[in-house]
Amino acid sequence: MTKSPEHEHPVKAFGWAARDQSGHLSPFKFSRRATGDKDVTFKVLYCGICHSDLHSIKNEWGGTKYPLVPGHEFVGEVTEVGSKVQKFKVGDKVGVGCLVGSCHSCDNCARDLENYCLEAVGTYNSNYYDGTPTHGGYSNIMVVNEHFVVHIPDNLPLDAAAPLLCAGITTYSPLKYFGFDKPGMHIGVVGLGGLGHVAVKFAKAFGAKVTVISTSPNKKSEALEHLGADSFLVSRDQDQMQAAMGTMDGIIDTVSAVHPLLPLIGLLKSHGKLVMVGAPDRPLELPVMPLLMGRKLVAGSCIGGIKETQEMVDFAAKHKIAADIEVISMDYVNTAMERLAKADVRYRFVIDVGNTLKAE
């Protein structure tokens, strides 16, 4: 007989879950496993709302298993550690991103790239090794193997640090891997949302010249004056786009809606790289001829390994980089999802789980 979510594990837990493709979130009682030898248990204090959460609760990518407790960028305070835990102690400020498990034996895991492990276990909407579903950070408590926990430095505000565990590593990792972290590079950032605004901050900290590319002219002053970008292109303005042709070494494309790639490829210098980090729910059209005529590259990148995630958080603390956030209460989450679908947030919603999640 299948156990109910409340009785799968010994530790009572409480969060908000989606039950069906409507994506409506509501209070949900479930359970977490007891703290194992190598586990860290922590009280969740803040959880960012990622665009992936919106896609997942509505099953827009397919494969959603309900009930679903979303959230894969969250932080909190350690309340218990297992007997073999070496890196964390009670009272530490910690975070968890998109992963809670991997095989630890494949080539990717051996290279600290757990994010590309074929057996990686997602923080939510996956099955853990015991066969029970994983539930994310829209909840009061988390239990996770210490390998997948990162330290949050004291000088990073916890609420604004939470989105770094997804949005931060999603942009930091390709900037590093594709060589966009060298001073003097000219880097474009497409889309000025949760991912894009953090990409601008990291690229500037690496010493790059940064151009924001957006469909919204009204984001120009925000990009230049607040985020420190060097220039701004309205992607629908053909004159502006034409004038910038062949000027960029690389582009980070954060847009998760269907959009044309040809104008972006045109902005690249020869040997330039267009790196996709957004995840549209339908295929994009890729023109090949412009790639051939400049040996240009279109690539993808998905979050980062745990070692690099810790490196990213430490870099952010050193350079005083955090997400620009709107802190909300747990009971506002459905309204926040509606606003996120309309891109009505500057730039990341963060749920104040610690103060506003009330058990029923």
TrEMBL record:
One of its GO terms (biological process) is lignin biosynthetic process. GO terms for molecular function: oxidoreductase activity, acting on the CH-OH group of donors, NAD or NADP as acceptor; zinc ion binding. The keyword Glycosyltransferase does not apply. Its cofactor is Zn(2+). Signal peptide: none annotated. SMART domains: PKS_ER. CDD domains: CAD1. Residues 23-351 form the Enoyl reductase (ER) domain. Gene3D superfamilies: Medium-chain alcohol dehydrogenases, catalytic domain, NAD(P)-binding Rossmann-like Domain. PROSITE patterns: ADH_ZINC (PS00059). The lineage of its organism: Eukaryota, Viridiplantae, Streptophyta, Embryophyta, Tracheophyta. This is Enoyl reductase (ER) domain-containing protein.
